[in-house]
Amino acid sequence: MADNGPNDGDGLARKLAALRLSYAAKLPGELEKIEEAAALLGSDPSPEEARQGLDVLHRLTHKLSGSGETFGFKELGEISRQIEAICASMLELDAPPPSGLREELGVLVKDLRTAAGDAQDVPPAAGEPGRSVVEISGEGQEKNKEEKTILLAAQDSALAEKLEMELFNFGFKVRALSHPAEMGGKLKELRPAALVVDMEAGENGPTEWEAPECLNPKNWGKDGAFHCPVVFLSASEDIKTLLAAVRAGGGAFLTKPVNAGELVDALDGLIESDDRELYRILIVDDDQSMAGYVKTIIQNAGMNASVATDPMKVMDRISDFAPELILMDLYMPGCNGQELATAIRLRPAFAGIPIVFLSGESDRSKQLAALGGGGDDFLTKSISPEHLIASVKTRVRRFRMLRSLMVRDSMTGLFNHTTTNELLEIELARARRNKTSLALASLDLDHFKGVNDTHGHAVGDRVIKSLARLLKQRLRGTDIIGRMGGEEFAVVLCNAGGGQARKAMDQIRAAFSKIKHQTEKGTFTVTLSCGVAAFSKFAAPPLLTEAADKALYAAKEGGRNRVVLVKT
Amino acid sequence: MTETLKKILCAEDDPDIQAVAGMSLGDIGGFTVEMCSSGQEALEKAPAFSPDLILLDVMMPGMDGPTAFKELRRMLEFENTPIVFMTAKVMGPEVEQYKEMGAAGVIPKPFDPMTLPDQIREIWGKRHG
């Protein structure tokens, strides 16, 4: 089927992993719908409510029981099957469910939420049985849940050692290559998240290290089919060296002497863009075969495509599928593409989605008129698949970037102040509804002004980024991590009591205090203080934030480098 | 009917399962796959695609698998095309019912994407072996 993607085991594993990721990302939404339906059965439902709740619950859990295990979430599938079976028998009886069964359903739905929460953690890699989850408490916390392996090819062993140590501080696991001939095998064995290559031989270097011959993927043997982003390091910045790096597939190029912060930034940029969710493209075309053709092209390029053949149903499809780009035919029955694009743009939530017209229309003035209605671009149907893919990918990438700018802090990639507070409100409401626990932690770096004054802002920024990375690595995927401004951070820990949260944050505090930050003049360490407040005592978001801040203040007063759980 | 299994038409409404089934059948199985989201779409696409085998999800909104099965059997060119159901229903009587209808096989969901092509080949082999 796909002739523009590797069909070997590695390519498949990556595709499967990507599918799993995208499935896992949709679970919270599904869970919310399930919980809503279960709520209808809550207490003393009317016969209509009961019927409706069971109906919806049955449909949703049927779907999960059929798909959960396929994507590696066995427990989720099993619990769904139990709920589905209860719903099916109740629907068959056509009587209001007895309270005992309703309670059982409630418990199962809660279990389902836990199982889905676990699925939000790192999804298992292809072919690997479900990995156990990093618990908020317990020894599991010590292990980085998402340690990124970097393969380092540098002949200069002093440089290799230095990079290894510096990258380790930023949470990367570095494996150095001792001979270029190992490249293919190591790539296969380690599946590194990125490859860092020094382009020059050391002082007395044997010539086999001379880049880029040993770096040409063709020379890696068939195992080299596993492609990962490559960062090149070189002392020379001349165009010949740059071109050589580009030809060898370089994703980034840094000149020596290499600054660890720069290298980490380059790695972050390359790695992050690689393991995200699949791009979602909605194709609106009344012509089945044309839509199918476009869909195949999009899917073969590793994107998620969905087809809507009825323009009248497009709005629902947009809500369900949440496309990141819409490819639309210009002439359709009932309404034309231009009108439909305008209609889509009227819904504020949809106003930002890029719309690209795909049509046989070759008259440039008609094309331009269509763009006036809210389309972003115009492609003719005779377009080559490569051109179509490139055009779609660029736009979606940009769409994602713009969207993330609105909710994320640009330096750390964590949620920004506004988004963190919004998410806290949502999670608090959920905790109240489900009677689950929740804790809020406020963090602040100790004497950070001194770091900036002594070492400069560039070094200070790196310290902030290292804490952001540590938080992302050590906390669960379901926890909300925000940068509230300057050197202040907040973490919302769902399903965690005050004691658990304090313990988790204390582990982070201890780990952070051990990170050695590099400067030209040597290394230094920074500590943090943290205040924790648990939800059961402080119901409204402002009160909870206030309590966590008070605890943070107490931690500072108490001598810093500590975590304080607020007591009432 | 052709001897080797090359083209599979697959109808499945869940986009996640669609993606994983498409990958499994296409990339792992090496089949040419046409994906549809409903029974209706399967009926529309089948004639032009002329599949060697048809894979139908049982529960789909609109036209479900069994209805699509009956409609396909009415079309001359698909009178004898092997049709396989995929279902998350584990209860015996229904599985038997599909076989009585004339289904070539029933694949239980959730399926393992790594072995789905083998399961299909086994069903195919029984008919053509």
Describe the structure.
The complex is a heterodimer of chains A (568) and B (129). Chain A has helices at residues 9-40, 47-67, 74-93, 99-120, 157-169, 183-190, 239-247, 260-272, 288-300, 314-321, 337-346, 364-372, 385-407, 417-434, 448-455, 457-474, 498-514, 541-557; strands spanning 148-153, 172-176, 194-198, 230-234, 250-255, 280-284, 304-308, 325-328, 355-359, 377-380, 438-445, 480-485, 488-494, 517-519, 522-524, 528-534, 563-565. Chain A is α/β, with parallel strands linked by helices. Chain A folds into four domains: 9-120; 148-272, Rossmann fold; 280-407, Response regulator (Rossmann fold); 417-565, Alpha-Beta Plaits. In chain A, the strands form four sheets. A five-stranded parallel sheet of chain A has the order 2-1-3-4-5, sandwiched between helices. A five-stranded parallel sheet of chain A has the order 7-6-8-9-10, with helices on both faces. In chain A, strands 12-13-11-16-17 form a five-stranded mixed sheet, with helices on both faces. The longest helix of chain A is centred in the first third of the chain and has 32 residues, at 9-40. The relative contact order of chain A is 0.07. Chain B contains five helices and five strands, in the order E-H-E-H-E-H-E-H-E-H. Chain B has a single domain (7-128), classed as Response regulator (Rossmann fold, 3-Layer(aba) Sandwich). The longest helix of chain B is centred in the N-terminal third of the chain and has 14 residues, at 15-28. Chain B is 45% helix and 19% strand. Chain B has helices at 15-28, 39-49, 65-74, 92-101, 116-128; strands spanning 7-11, 32-36, 53-57, 83-87, 105-108. In chain B, helix 1 (15-28) links the parallel strand 1 and strand 2 (32-36). Chain B has a five-stranded parallel sheet with strand order 2-1-3-4-5, sandwiched between helices. Chain B is globular, with a radius of gyration of 13 Å. Chain B is an alpha/beta fold.
